[in-house]
Structure formats: C-alpha cells, structure tokens
Specification:
There is one protein chain. By secondary structure, the chain is an alpha+beta fold. It has five helices and two strands. Strands 1-2 form a two-stranded antiparallel ribbon.
Amino acid sequence: MCNVYVKADPMLYESRTRSLRVHGVITTVRLENLFWDVLHDIAERENLTTSQFVVKLYDELTTLRGEVTNFASFLRVCCLRYLASSEQERAPDVKGQAAAPLRQIKSA
C-alpha cells in the first residue's frame, strides 16, 4: 500500500515560494508543487490566473473570518476539499449512481 505514496515524484513534494500582490502589498506563499498544480487547475476552471484565484480566496476568507493566521494551510485544505469533491462527482456506486457523499468536514 505505501508504494502508492512513496513512489511519488519528488518534484510533487518539493516546496516552491511564490510572490503575490494582495492589495498592493507583495506577500509570499510557500507550498508544495502538487498544491500549486491543484490551485492552477481550480483557477483555470474559474477563468482566473493562479495568482488572481489565490488573492480572491484571501479576500473572501478575510471578509468571512477577519484576520488570516495560516494562509498556506488554508490553501492546502482548499486543495484537498476540491480533490475530494471532484472525486465524489466522478465516483459512481455499484449501480451506476453517484456515490454517497464523503464525510463533510465541519468547521468549528
């Protein structure tokens, strides 16, 4: 079972720092390449660049929650939630019906 995980291309878990301009202020975000790839895919679906999408997430998060304490972790969670919802949409059950929803993660 672990071979599925340990044989991952090392480039996927190598970190990369990207600079983003958020309301005129340049900030950096460090994520593993795989997360940047997922964010790129989500941004494409939204017809945005990755930077535009990340800034949009930042704006929506600050509007909802106020101060952002760990934005990189938030982005990782966004990626995992996106992948989980994408998998849920693609995974039919035995009868060809849509699979039962994955366990919803409720925020406190």
